[in-house]
Design brief:
A two-stranded antiparallel ribbon has the order 1-2. It has one domain: Ammonium transporter AmtB like domains (Ammonium transporter fold, Orthogonal Bundle), CATH 1.10.3430.10. It is mainly alpha-helical. The chain is globular.
Length: about 425
């Protein structure tokens, strides 16, 4: 069996989708601002410059090389092999250096733009988890590694006509693995990359002075964090609607529901995290509420185009309840130092959204297709990312030297602080 042809976009749909993708980078800007606010004041400039540099590195490497491995939109040419009487398309086959882009179909051009933004976001996510000890050059090198092979591999399997997208055609599992807004390809991949970075780089000095104990290292600017949430909402709305058009082929009448579901998922998640932190700490926690909001947005990336508004509320509610509890579990029980909460927000939030998409989708077998995709993310892509990052760390060391961590990443890597008019006090752990 061959997949059904993708319906071409009209001129109006093309212009509308392009406008959405022009707004989508606001999601990247929001995440970058949240990361900077959750880090230490003496590393704020490095955090934001690193965000821009990582986006640039990922975009360049993907455009020159990685895009060739994704392949054209929806089932173009690719490398495949036969197994059990089925064709397993595992890697795309397109020209390098974006050759022939101007002559490509309009939908293929929009798909490439979506993928450029997606790889930039996926590469940015682990940067927040390595804050205050991850070197800028190493962050850019890791972004290049993700952009040259790992992200293209996932994007081809899910968006480019690869074997995960064909689970429905080959095995009758719903419509194949569905990921309209990039919950798997962007957020789970980015969150799992963040986990690999934390494992390799280790925790910040003084974070875990004794086994079972953790020192609080609060973010330095809650205003950055909360304003970043508002920026991210605009970008996420555009991202999810554009993804519904390109990857789910959603009818125009259903696009407004996708936008509504995105807002409802984030809102329910914020309300749930607000309530949980109010009950546990007596007052709501701004940084955890921001993480809850983002977790709701991430979960919506998987299912906003597939669920009803009531179901979107449930998805966000569950994400918001789980977020502060999982942040605490990772830190206190597993001694994982994740300043931005990316592992919880992006990896766990994305996995929950993918699972919810299978639960609520009306297609028979869709839940099993989503589970196959989740198993692939955890069983194939996580070990691959860890191995590549471990090898990269041998060539470009991830962690800054102890003196650089003591004085701050701004002074050590940039020669100046983000707030030169203020005195940055030294932590007790360094005395």
């Amino acid at each position: 069996m061959t997949p059904a042809p993708v319906p071409p976009l009209s001129d109006v749909a093309f212009a509308f989708t392009l406008a959405l993708l022009v707004l989508a980078p606001l999601a990247i800007a929001g995440v970058a601002l949240i990361n900077a606010g959750l880090g230490r004041s003496r590393s704020a400039a490095q955090a934001l410059l690193g965000s821009v540099a990582i986006v640039a590195a990922a975009a360049i490497v993907f455009a020159l090389v990685g895009s060739a491995w994704v392949g054209p939109v929806a089932g173009g040419a690719g490398h495949s092999f036969q197994l059990a009487g089925k064709s397993w398309n595992w890697l795309g086959a397109s020209p390098f250096f974006l050759s022939g882009l101007a002559a490509a179909l309009p939908q293929a051009q929009l798909g490439l733009l979506f993928e450029l933004l997606a790889v930039a976001m996926a590469a940015l996510i682990p940067w927040g988890s390595g804050m205050d000890r991850w070197r800028l050059t190493a962050g850019c090198a890791a972004a290049a590694v993700l952009a040259v092979f790992v992200f293209p591999l996932a994007a081809h399997w899910i968006w480019g006509g690869g074997w995960l997208s064909q689970l429905g055609v080959n095995f009758g599992l719903g419509a194949g693995f569905l990921d309209g807004g990039g919950a798997a390809t962007v957020h789970v991949l980015g969150g799992l990359s963040a986990l690999a970075v934390v494992w390799i780089a280790g925790s910040r000095k003084g974070k875990f002075p004794k086994e079972g104990l953790a020192t609080a290292m609060p973010g330095h600017n809650a205003v950055y964090v909360v304003f970043g949430c508002l920026l991210a909402l605009v970008g996420w709305q555009a991202w999810n609607v554009a993804g519904a058009i390109l990857w789910l082929h959603t009818a125009p009448a259903a696009l407004a529901v996708t936008a509504v579901n995105t807002l409802l998922s984030a809102s329910a998640a914020l309300a749930a995290t607000f309530a949980v932190t109010q009950i546990r700490f007596g007052k709501p926690d701004a940084s955890l509420c921001a993480n809850g909001w983002l977790a709701g947005l991430v979960a919506s990336s998987a299912c906003a185009g597939l669920v009803t508004p009531v179901e979107a509320l449930f998805v966000g509610l569950a994400a918001g309840i789980a977020t502060p509890l999982m942040v605490e579990l990772l830190e206190l029980a597993l001694s994982i130092d994740d300043p931005s909460g990316a592992i919880t927000v992006h990896a766990a939030g994305g996995l929950w959204g993918l699972l919810a998409a299978g639960f609520f989708a009306p297609l028979p077998g869709q839940l099993l297709a989503q589970l196959v995709g989740i198993a692939t993310l955890l069983g194939v892509l996580l070990p691959l990312v860890y191995l590549l990052f471990w090898l990269l760390n041998r060539v470009v060391p991830f962690r800054v030297d102890p003196d650089g961590e003591r004085i701050g990443m701004d002074l050590h890597e940039l020669g100046g602080g983000a707030y030169p008019e203020f005195v940055i006090h030294r932590d007790e752990s360094y005395r």
